[in-house]
């Protein structure tokens, strides 16, 4: 129940970002947490050691979003967001540039490579910080 309303135009709940941060603060301070979200500018910088931004070519993204039932403005805005690298730019502005990494997310093979890369990073980070 971390919402502050519903956006009729986008047909989705409106997240109460302050409540989300308050809810996660204790867990995040313990460490070892992975956060999966489509934006990052409201999360405190101190929470993250690395940020991965998944990137998708528009032809793949259009089909993917359309299959999820996205239409009209919601579909167009998501495509435009990818074209202008909005989430990547948001991440670079919110965190140190050296911890922000882009990963391709077009195919199931990309998914496997991304998982492998992220797991390797986690294993190395654990070795370096224990």
TrEMBL record:
GO terms for molecular function: AMP kinase activity; ATP binding; ATP hydrolysis activity. Pfam families: AAA_18. It catalyses: AMP + ATP = 2 ADP. GO terms for cellular component: cytoplasm; nucleus. One of its GO terms (biological process) is rRNA processing. It is found in: Nucleus. Keywords: ATP-binding, Cytoplasm, Kinase, Nucleotide-binding, Nucleus, Ribosome biogenesis, rRNA processing, Transferase. This is KAD6 kinase. It comes from Xiphorhynchus elegans.
């Amino acid at each position: 129940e971390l919402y502050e309303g519903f956006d009729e135009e986008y047909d989705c709940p409106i997240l109460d970002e302050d409540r989300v941060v308050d809810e996660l603060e204790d867990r995040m301070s313990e460490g070892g947490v992975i956060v999966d979200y489509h934006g990052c500018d409201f999360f405190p910088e101190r929470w993250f050691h690395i940020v991965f931004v998944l990137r998708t070519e528009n032809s793949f993204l259009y089909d993917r979003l359309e299959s999820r039932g996205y239409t009209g403005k919601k579909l167009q805005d998501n495509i435009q967001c990818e074209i202008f690298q909005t989430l990547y730019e948001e991440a670079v502005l919110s965190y140190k540039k050296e911890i922000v990494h882009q990963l391709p997310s077009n195919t199931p093979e990309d998914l496997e490579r991304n998982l492998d890369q992220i797991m390797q990073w986690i294993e190395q980070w654990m070795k370096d910080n224990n």
